[in-house]
Design a protein that fits this description.
InterPro entries: DUF559 (IPR007569), Endonuclease_DUF559_bact (IPR047216), Restrct_endonuc-II-like (IPR011335). Pfam families: DUF559. It comes from Pseudomonas turukhanskensis. This is Endonuclease. This protein has 5 helices and 4 strands; from the N terminus they run H-H-E-E-E-H-E-H-H. Strand 2 and strand 3 (55-60) form a beta hairpin. It has a single domain (3-109), classed as Endonuclease, Chain A (3-Layer(aba) Sandwich). By secondary structure, it is of the alpha+beta class. It has helices at 3-12, 16-25, 68-80, 90-95, 97-112; strands spanning 36-41, 44-50, 55-60, 84-89. A 4-stranded mixed beta sheet has the order 1-2-3-4, with helices on both faces.
């Protein structure tokens, strides 16, 4: 089975937490951002991807405790490709959705904040006319 077929299967067999998160992210419901779900990225499948911000949101169930090393390698590879990975536990999403969304909102706001302007030259500095 190729990665696309696997991703399609994951979309049809979403966990309760994935369904709840998708409800909040789909149709640009979260801050007007376009997300896709179960997206193949070369050798991995990301739960939710926002191309505009190169943001990946991953939801982890209990099985991820045993796969911590794999998840770390995966996150490192994704970071090398320019993505930021935000990870949340399934129970966080199901029990504290607003807290999770607020953490995501704060991250997005930080990315969209323009960098501060360069300071103006002090008296006596700069080119003289």
């Amino acid at each position: 089975m190729d990665l696309r077929d696997c991703a399609k299967g994951l979309r049809s067999e979403a966990t309760e937490a994935e369904r709840a998160m998708w409800y909040r992210l789909r149709d640009r419901r979260f801050m007007g951002l376009k997300f896709r779900r179960q997206v193949p990225l070369e050798r991995y499948i990301a739960d939710f991807v926002c191309w505009e911000l190169k943001l990946i949101v991953e939801l982890d169930g209990g099985q991820h405790i045993e796969r911590a090393a794999y998840d770390q390698r995966r996150s490192q590879w994704l970071a090398e490709q320019g993505y930021t990975v935000l990870r949340y536990w399934n129970n966080q999403v199901l029990q504290e959705m607003e807290v999770v969304l607020e953490a995501m909102r704060l991250w997005v706001e930080e990315q969209k904040r323009p960098s501060p302007p360069a300071p103006l030259p002090q008296a006596g500095e700069g080119r003289q006319a």
